[in-house]
Batch of 4 targets.
Target 1
Amino acid sequence: LTLVEFIRKLLVRQAIRRMEAGTLSDRQTEDIGRALMQLEATVRDLAARFGITVEDLNLDLGPAGKLI
């Protein structure tokens, strides 16, 4: 689940870059936004089912810092 959340955040950043660069149509922007919001809701739902918080998904990598 941590990996899914990490990839979701990367996808959000990439979508923002593409929107700012103007490489997405309005329809694509809406579709990506909707898909990413649905994925976030799914991650939160799964985390709740397993009794963990979204903050728990941010693994401590020691000297490297937090994952997310």
Note: The chain has two helices and no strands.
Target 2
Amino acid sequence: YSCPMTGLVSAFWVQAYLTRLRLQDIPGFVTTHGDNDAGAVLIKLNTLDGRAVAYQRGYDLTTGARRWVELTSGAEPDVDAAIRRQTEFDPDLWVIEIEDRKGRHLLDEAGLE
């Protein structure tokens, strides 16, 4: 894992992302506060139906670009367990939880992809 945007401190990115969510009336909040400067970020999308998806930054091996990829999905307790394992492995990790029945996360928008 590394900072979601090279050269951009994690805390700033997280605040900007939460602002974008608020502007779209999508509830989002920090559940695990990682390292302010270099913590990686996981996004948990809770669709409020007992299911969830966790996203992390990954590399597109064909282009070398960074993009958001699914870490895991399924029953919310299973997704929570996977996230918990990640935070135990990486104490600098940020976790943002989004609650949206429509499944919106905005991660595919310009500046966040």
Note: Residues 1-6 have pLDDT under 50 and may be disordered.
Target 3
Amino acid sequence: KDREEWRSRRREGIGASDAAAVIGFSPWKGAVRLYNEKIGLEVEDAEETEAMEWGRRLEPAVAAKYEEETGRALLHLGDYTILRSTKYSWMQTTLDRWIMTEDDRGPGILQAKTAGFFKKQEWEGGEPPVYYQMQQTHEFIVAGVTWGSLAVLIGGQKFLWCDFALNTDFAEQLIEREREFFERVQRKEPPPFDGSADSAALLKQLYPRHTEGKVVALPMEALQWDDELLRVKAEIKELSARERAIKNLFAEAIGDAEIGLLSSGDGYSYKEVRKEPYTVKEQAYRELRRRAAKGSR
């Protein structure tokens, strides 16, 4: 009946906007934070950001433009209407719009989005960002449809839209990943931390300080982590050296020019950058460093 009840009901299952977080492709949230929200350890921020507010305000305008561009009729079920799958009970969603078509595909689903101008490159190439494709796949499964459209207003002035069909292979993978995640929620078994910035931020919140003199025995699998970390760091060092060498080749070729052009039409600029002096504020944080045992590598 209202936004508060809608937010409460969303915690009872996995929504379309959660799909990318479950798989680890969300730019905003990781699986661990999503898990904490679902079991009530962390409360999802109820305050709208300015970007979220404008996305909500402009959604009807994006939908209207889509109708105008495509000639397809849309149906709005309401901002607080939640659909739940009858086959996969944990899967639910609130649709932006139904697409009411008269062709053999049957109805589809529209996602109406807004994006800042700096996100323009994510939409180039004819396909929407992968995390929105995951979101729409989730909606396809819940609603039982096989196709949909994604429309976006970029920077308040550039309108784009595209159709795409259900990828059944990916849909099966998504169902299984979401099933596994939701079973973890029911068992109160948190997912492992991943390599996302969100996981790193959560770990800093959980363990902001060390206990002086405290030593713990790491699990046996930590030996594998150690081997892999050393190997990855060696690869990064080698790649970084190669990157510097290639950059030096470009710098030498450009010389005292401002821009060097490739035969493809792309190019590189090599300009002077000035930065104002500043003083770093005092800060405290934990840093992970490897300590080699005496006599070992």
Note: Residues 222-254 form the longest helix (33 residues).
Target 4
Amino acid sequence: MIAVVAVRDGVLPLGAEETINEARGRVLLVGTGTEVARAELAGALSAAICWEAGPYRPGSWARALAPELEAEDVVLLPASADGRDLAPRLALALGRPLHAGAIKIDPAGASLLRGGGRSLLDVDFIGPVVATLQPGSRGTDDRSGKEVESRAISPDIVPEPDADYEGLVPADPATMELREATRIVAGGAGLGSPEAMDLLGQVATALGCATGATRVVTDAGWAPFNRQIGTTGQVVDPDLYIAVGISGAVQHVSGIGQPKDVVSINLDPSAPMMLMADLALVTDAAALTVALAGRLGVTAPPPEGTDD
């Protein structure tokens, strides 16, 4: 088993270390700045292949990488934006099935999320496969002190430009996966109504943030399940987390990672989320959402409700 990780200017994608750990520390780093990425991953590696392939070209990369990977029974990529893009192309180039959305994988099979994350499907492999691993689903092991086998792919393997690739389009914060969001505005029961949650989503988009929610909100149908943050939803790790009307139950807080900055809006100054916030605003969450919408030029019916 080997991990394949696309690198952009030495920056690793979300879920890279978990994917490498699942592949027992074996990785092929492809892209730009691969040696920088290898140095950053030193404690997670047992074997590393670095390929300076230039700017991201998924079709050409897949065709060029196939001969290097054909001896590997399982080729595993993180389910990041680039990983989800490159994985099906690799599967086609290698003539293998693709198993997407795994939360656990080994040489014999995988556990896959299905139905928007509400069900789990266990599959047994009957031959070589390509798979993607969901970020936040697995931990990492420390391999510091162990000797790492490292080599570079011959520079004569240079892909031709993809005729259909025109560049990278920035993700829409309103629809991007929460695991990949660096800024998140999340709503809780303190918003008081589905209308308030809808308005908060518009405010988040206007701020360039992704929209998240607590389990109470998704269970009530105010937001789709794929927006739920917590141990039974999405595990995230943004730079900025704005909690609006969220008390801070442990099931939710354990899923927000380690944000650099946390802002909390709630009527209860002693709520757990308020105590962990860098900036805590003691005010009505729904009313503040309306005020923000007005400042940002977002028009919607004013929501009703107060913090609980």
Note: Residues 204 and 285 are 14 Å apart (CA to CA).
